[in-house]
Amino acid sequence: MNATRTVYACNLTVNGVPFCDDLPPTTILLDLLRERLGLTTLIQGCDHGHCGGCTVLVDGAPVKSCLILAISVPQAEVLTIDALPRAPDLHHVREVLGRAGPPLCSECMPARILSILALAGQGRTPSAQEIGAFMRANPCGCGRQAHAEGTGGQVADMSRSEHEDVP
User: In this structure, are residues 116 and 131 in contact, taking their beta carbons and an 8 Å threshold?
Assistant: First the structure.
């Protein structure tokens, strides 16, 4: 008789903290992060990957955590918006997004920040067009989509000026 496994090992690092446990194979990454780890700043919005409120970085790439099984990213490094107040790159991104107009809603702001940081983490300064494309990938119902897309050039300019002093 062939026994079916009901749980699988899940070994992740979430915001720098190791997480090791056995999980049912159907556990969605968003559910793990919100329910097991208490990271409720992640929004469970549309459950279809459209809103971006559940965006996290998995090994440096933006991922909609409502669309991925936790066991499908073994040994991954997961970064959520919760870890970013400690991140050194965040201050200029938040400053530009806040200075450019009305604040973004809590659903789209984390996805925007994480997407910009993912682009910047590729070892080069992202262009305004790249930042705008990343932001358009997460449409939001807050009505501030155009405001967010327009900040791409400002963030890119700030990134360039910060990196110019680096030898």
Answer: yes
